[in-house]
Write a sequence for this structure.
């Protein structure tokens, strides 16, 4: 059995370093169980002459192991001819596993060092632990250097958007505004690669490959990249820097994957994006999210906050530092700069994405997009026109808050993939239903969420809607069974007294069932992840028509009445 659990090469800025790095996941069982005498000899060999390893399998030994592994990497590097190597060591949820990261300039030698470090840990229980360190250093010194990092240095302006919810909508809005400015915009996201508004390749390109594809396109004048947590953790960011970064929010999502178990850890991952924003650029941060606002302490760029609350302390603090803020004043999207009167850009009622200000999340996305567009240098008048012309429909923002009318029933199609997203969907559904009408929800989840999150989604859905039904996502079971997911969602619904929740095999099937039982004025919501085009096709076949901005405004007025 080897101590090397995983060796992962990160090609660009990452959770550990602002440049390419190697991430090792190491099993330290041998070191944890070694005798105090053996652990002491190991410590002295790697330069920890006064270390006290503690008894085997104790908390003291675990703390020693974290320190010792970092010193081991440096010792091997020093003896192989690389001095002053930066090393980061982190514990994991498994007390016998640690993560070690170090930057690299030559891939072959960096990978050789990862394997050599594991060889030393394998040798710890033996009598040859001292010799093992020297042998490891010799292997590294003799390894072929290999390729250098291929991290891209952008030659055009880059807006990088990250966050848990809203990053796709926000990046779409920024790209739309950029095109309104006459620029050829390259945009990468979870749907694919877009050049000047046309998809040129479908697929999830929210990682480094997406950024690389659009920057390689000769005609692109502005790059807008959606940056997801998975790409940062698994590959690193493919760019050396960005000019403007946006962090929309950080909420519980994808926890329990790649060593990220808490929302605080997730926030640290998202913070990689603003950390590499150039010093003369802008980091656009959500002032209403404490974890996002705290990122201003790790950035080099100038801070620009957005908040729905004009009295937010975040505004006072950032303006005091010479930054900027975008907020809502008397129903107007307004920009604040130090020692100047507010600049009212556009009324929320004239921004279709906000549904006359009804959609709290899309108000925030609007504030973020306006801030980013202004920060990248787009003229104020163009930003206003872009906000007015970006629509919540399948053309401009597919899969996010798309409204349709089928007979006298409203249908809302949205990704709604986590708690915050589902609550936002239900908020919108409430905002357009007629008095005394019902909310009918097609509930669905992807399999890589925790049991707790899946149950919570069932609870929220049952608590806040009148009728719920499950629609499965066969493409996204991710190791789960449909029966297992049904059990978890139903358990959540039962916590608020809802039992007997029916299940359907597809998103289209659950939509058909809910629309079939809806009454005039009811609103059907669908958490749509796997069959977006099929859902659009079904709606068209059954007389569904996309709602225009005027249609939505009418529905909001009727609901308010």
């Amino acid at each position: 059995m080897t101590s090397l659990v995983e060796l992962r090469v990160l090609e660009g800025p990452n959770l550990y370093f602002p440049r390419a790095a190697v991430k090792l996941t190491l099993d330290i069982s041998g070191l944890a169980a070694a005798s105090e005498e053996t652990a002491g000899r190991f410590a002295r060999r790697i330069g920890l002459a006064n270390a006290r390893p503690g008894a085997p399998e104790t908390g003291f030994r675990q703390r020693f192991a974290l320190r010792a592994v970092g010193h081991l990497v440096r010792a091997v590097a020093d003896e192989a001819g690389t001095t002053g190597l930066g090393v980061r060591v982190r514990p994991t949820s498994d007390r016998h596993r640690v993560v070690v990261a170090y930057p690299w300039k030559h891939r072959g030698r960096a990978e050789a060092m990862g394997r050599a470090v594991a060889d030393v840990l394998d040798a710890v229980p033996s009598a040859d632990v001292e010799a093992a360190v020297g042998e490891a250093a010799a292997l590294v010194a003799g390894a072929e250097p290999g390729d250098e990092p291929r991290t891209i240095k952008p030659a055009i302006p880059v807006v990088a958007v990250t966050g848990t919810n809203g990053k796709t909508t926000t990046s779409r809005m920024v790209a739309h505004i950029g095109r309104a400015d006459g620029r050829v915009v390259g945009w990468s996201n979870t749907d694919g690669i877009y050049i000047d508004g046309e998809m040129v390749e479908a697929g999830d390109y929210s990682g480094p490959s997406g950024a690389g594809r659009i920057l390689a396109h000769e005609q692109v004048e502005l790059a807008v990249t959606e940056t997801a947590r998975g790409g940062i953790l698994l590959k690193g960011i493919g760019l050396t820097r960005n000019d403007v970064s946006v962090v929309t929010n950080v909420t519980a999502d994808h926890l329990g994957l790649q060593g990220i178990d808490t929302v605080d850890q997730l926030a640290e991952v998202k913070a990689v994006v603003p950390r590499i924003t150039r010093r003369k650029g802008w980091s656009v941060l959500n002032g209403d999210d404490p974890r996002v606002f705290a990122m201003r302490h790790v950035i080099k760029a100038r801070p620009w906050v957005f908040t729905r609350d004009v009295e937010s302390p975040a505004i006072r603090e950032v303006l005091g530092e010479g930054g900027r803020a975008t907020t809502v004043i008397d129903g107007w999207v307004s920009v604040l700069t130090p020692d100047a009167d507010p600049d009212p850009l556009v009324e929320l009622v004239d921004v279709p994405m906000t549904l006359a200000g009804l959609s709290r999340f899309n108000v925030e996305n609007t504030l973020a997009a306006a801030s980013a567009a202004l920060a990248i240098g787009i003229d104020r008048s163009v930003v206003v026109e872009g906000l007015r012309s970006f629509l919540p429909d399948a053309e401009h923002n597919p899969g996010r808050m798309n409204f349709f009318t089928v007979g006298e029933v409203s249908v809302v199609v949205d990704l709604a993939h986590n708690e915050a997203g589902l609550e936002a969907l239900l908020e919108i559904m409430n905002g357009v239903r007629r008095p005394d009408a019902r909310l009918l929800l097609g509930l669905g989840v992807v399999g890589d969420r925790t049991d707790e999150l899946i149950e919570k989604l069932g609870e929220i859905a049952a608590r806040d809607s009148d009728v719920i039904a499950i629609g499965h996502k066969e493409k996204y079971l991710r190791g789960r069974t449909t029966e297992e997911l049904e059990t978890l969602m139903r358990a959540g619904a039962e916590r608020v007294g809802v039992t007997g929740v029916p299940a359907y095999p597809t998103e289209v099937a659950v939509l058909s069932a809910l629309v079939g039982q809806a009454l005039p004025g009811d609103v059907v919501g669908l958490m749509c992840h796997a069959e977006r085009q099929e859902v659009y096709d079904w709606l068209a076949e059954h007389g569904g028509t996309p709602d225009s901005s005027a249609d939505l405004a009418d529905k909001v007025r009727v609901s308010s009445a």
